[in-house]
Design brief:
alpha/beta; 9-stranded mixed β-sheet; 6-stranded mixed β-sheet
Length: about 400
């Protein structure tokens, strides 16, 4: 058991899971540095966890049935058809997932962190200075602190990743994800147009929108969470990696907003047009789709976790799962290792291939569903199933790889 001092940079879902893992592994002192000064529980976007991955993560102590969730079972694909308010269903695929509200999941993970862990809000880490026996964090305002191990759980623009030899940055995939959440009571009629357990996919030339129900803010009520993927009409309107966390409506260029409206008007069935139009402006934002996989998850006294290590396109259905799995494996490695070097090497060997596989799955699905989308309207159930088998390569990694124990380096 390694009992030194450990820093976790980032206090969102990945950071909370990492802090819990490190504390349970026996670290003598754990400090979490979260840049945001305000609460994170208000973030209302949705995420989904595959049933098989949920069972593993419940056993690992990260998830439990008490966290508000919604059961999803089916994924119909829908195209516009004259005379049909809700559109024509070309087919449906199984979709065994649980959906969550990001803020509720974060709150549950935050509550699991022991009181012995220091969680510092509003504390930005400006630079990480690795050394042979640890690393120094330089914080905003000039304060410096030394740690035996630093866990980078600080997402797209990770300062911990920037301190490694291969300081890679996410690459733009060429298209955008529009996101929104509409309270269920504001959904258009008729009530039977969209069943509760469905993750509906509204398909159009060059993209699609997936929409599924999630628990409402604070776990109260239910909201329709939608994600709309399409390339900007003009590549010059692409957003930068600095905008990877998303832009609220007031900061989105008018050219992008106009293109989004035009696609909805031209290709969505009337019911789904209303879902998008009724979504409050303050509950929508646009996010450029990026991806990244680092060549190594661990180096010296630095380890990377969640999006700091591997940014997978959302199509893979494994963003939160990936972070929670990383934390689970990190806990095992720290608890069983005889030295920091052994722990880092074992974690790196276990998670680098897993991260690479999830990122590649996201790229395949991005090509199949957006960049080289089929003629959706020409499909039927058999064609949809055949297309999906090709796109997902048998579905083995959809929703995240199976969680395995750490492998020897």
């Amino acid at each position: 058991m390694l009992t030194g001092r450990v820093a976790v940079v980032g206090g969102s879902i990945a950071g909370c899971a990492a802090a819990l893992a490190v504390a349970r592994a026996g670290a003598g002192e754990v400090v979490v540095f979260e840049r945001a000064a305000g609460g994170l529980a208000e973030r209302g976007v949705g995420l989904a966890v595959h049933d098989r991955r949920y069972a593993e993560l419940e056993a690992a102590g990260h998830l439990d049935p008490g966290i508000p969730w919604v059961r999803l079972t089916s994924r119909p694909w829908i195209v516009r058809e004259d005379g049909s308010r809700a559109g024509r269903r070309v087919g449906a695929l199984p979709f065994g997932f649980r959906s969550y509200n990001w803020g509720s999941l974060w709150s549950a993970l935050r509550a699991r962190i022991p009181a012995s862990v220091a969680y510092e809000r509003g504390t930005a880490v400006e630079r990480v200075l690795p050394g042979p026996g640890g690393a120094v964090l330089r914080l905003a305002g000039g304060r410096e602190e030394r740690f035996d191990l630093v866990v980078g759980a600080d997402g797209y623009r990770s300062v911990v990743r920037a301190a490694t030899r291969d300081a890679t940055v996410p690459g733009y995939a060429g298209y955008l994800a529009w996101r929104g959440a509409l309270p269920e009571e504001d959904l258009p009629g008729p009530a039977g147009a969209w069943a509760r357990e469905e993750a509906a996919n509204v398909a159009f030339p060059g993209g699609h929108m997936i929409v599924y129900r999630i628990p409402g803010p604070g776990g109260t009520g239910t909201s329709a969470n939608w994600v709309f993927y399409t390339a900007p009409a003009d590549p010059a309107h692409a957003l930068s990696v600095d905008d990877a966390a998303g832009l609220p409506p007031g900061r989105v260029p008018e050219a992008l907003t106009a293109h989004h409206r035009a696609v909805v008007d031209a290709h969505f069935p009337p019911y789904w047009q209303e879902v998008v139009r009724r979504t409050p402006k303050d509950a929508t934002y646009v996010q450029p789709v990026h991806d990244l996989c680092v060549p190594r998850y661990g180096e010296g006294r630095l380890v990377l976790l969640g999006d700091a290590a591997a940014v997978a396109r959302p199509h893979s259905g494994s963003g939160a799962v990936k972070a929670l799995q990383d934390a689970t494996v990190l806990e095992r490695c720290l608890a069983s290792a005889g030295s920091w070097a052994e722990a880092v090497a074992t974690y790196d060997a276990a998670r680098t291939p897993a991260g690479r596989a999830v990122v590649e799955m996201g790229r395949r699905l991005g090509r199949a569903q957006v960049q080289a989308a089929p003629d959706w309207a020409a499909m039927d159930q058999a064609a949809l199933e055949a297309w999906w088998q090709r796109a997902a390569e048998g579905e083995g990694n959809f929703g995240g790889q199976a969680l395995e124990g750490p492998r020897e380096p």
